[in-house]
Amino acid sequence: MSLLEDLKWRYATKKYDPTKKVEEEKVAQIIEAIRLAPTSSGLQQFQVIVISNPELKDKVRAASFNSQIIEDCSHLLVFAAWDKYTNERIDEMSSRSSISRGIPKEKSDAYYNMIKKAYVEKQTPEQNFIHTARQSYIGLAFAMAEAAELKVDSTPMEGFDPAQVDELLDLKSKGLKSVTLLALGYRDEENDWLAKHDKVRVSTEDFVIEYK
Ligand SMILES: Cc1cc2nc3c(=O)[nH]c(=O)nc-3n(C[C@H](O)[C@H](O)[C@H](O)COP(=O)(O)O)c2cc1C
């Protein structure tokens, strides 16, 4: 199937079949797509928490308006972004880049020192988080596309209490804050009201502003 066909196949699944689990190999492929997602300056400003443990999943569900989606899904991914930029975090990327590309450390540092000035010195942690959280949405999009390619259903979710989820997963100690959830599983087509409906999208003519 082409990417466009996969995107037409996928939808924000509302009812999962709780008896069907996503194979670990497929979960690993979805995680790999997220890991390969591009990010600003390549900093990979977020991490993914993968929850299949039923008790923990249930606790996150309680912090997510008791979502049936979370109850029935097979795996729940939590996208958690850096709470702020630090010199250490940026230095780590500078070293990684210099080692894996064989770029002299001074050259790599010159670029990343500029980034440090812009983010660590000139911005507040709140401004930092707006930027890091945005990067995590790129990962979210890649995850949904890869899941669709594998014929795994998914539901992106902002409908949860981030403070509660952060506490549950002890994200503060990791310097992270939750941004979105992504449920994975297999649709219960018969009982999912949305499975029968077409996608609702703005027409291409209204969507695109073109200057030729
Ligand atoms: C960032 C994001 C957050 C979303 N949050 C929720 C949510 O909390 N609960 C839910 O049922 N659907 C949620 N959705 C699903 C959207 O409503 C859905 O993607 C949109 O209506 C388009 O439909 P489609 O994904 O089926 O094509 C979210 C989607 C995105 C991209």
Topology:
Elements: H1 3-9, H2 24-35, E1 46-51, H3 54-62, H4 68-72, E2 75-82, H5 87-101, H6 105-121, H7 125-149, E3 153-157, H8 162-168, E4 176-185, H9 204-207
Antiparallel strand pairs: 1-2, 2-4, 3-4
Task: Tell me about this structure.
The chain has 212 residues and is an alpha+beta fold. It has 9 helices and 4 strands; from the N terminus they run ααβααβαααβαβα. Helix 2 (24-35) crosses helix 7 (125-149) and helix 5 runs antiparallel to helix 6.
> What is the 3D shape?
globular
What fold name goes in the CATH topology slot of the largest domain?
A: NADH Oxidase
Tell me the number of helical segments per DSSP (H or I, 4 or more residues long). 9
The H-and-E topology, N to C, reads as HHEHHEHHHEHEH
Helix content: 40-55%
Associated small molecules: flavin mononucleotide
Question: What features would you highlight for this structure?
Answer:
212 residues; globular; alpha+beta; NADH Oxidase; binds flavin mononucleotide; 4 strands; 2 domains
What's the quick description here?
With 212 residues, this protein is of the alpha+beta class. The mean pLDDT is 96.
